[in-house]
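Feature request disguised as a bug report, sorry. It would help if multi-protein outputs had a clear separator. Right now it looks like this:
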Amino acid sequence: MEDRVRSLEIANAKLATSVEHLSSTVTILASTVQDLRDTMNQGRGALWIMMAAAGSIGAIIVTLAKKVLGIV
């Protein structure tokens, strides 16, 4: 009986260690996911700015071309 109790105590200690390791890993993973999400949002903002700039430059070029060519 004493051997079974000792065996259960060892198994419980192993399980507790595994749970602690899993908890720390999940915490690190959550932090990494948040960092990736922040990076994606920055990239999305940069893309919007580049698209707006490209559209503005295109509109200016078309307007200047129409004035130079005399197109109404």
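(second protein starts here, but nothing in the output says so)
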Amino acid sequence: MSEFLLLGIRSSAPGEASMSGVAHGVVALAAWHGWLRRWGLLRSFGLPQDPAGELRACLVIRASGRPAAERLAAGWGQVSGYQ
């Protein structure tokens, strides 16, 4: 197993999000992160000191190789909206 750094990038989007959409997103992300922890794949995470930039979050994950890390990154992007 190797460790990989995932950078969650999202540009600031003007406008308001619906409460139900935000709630659904929080629940989906919490479940996704919970599974990573249960499987021992989430090593660490970090949030930027300046939330105004495009960088929103960083994850250090464990994966068997680059293809597996890319699949985890794609899953994270699906539930979080990060690029």
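Even a blank line would do. Unrelated, but nice: The longest helix spans residues 19-38.
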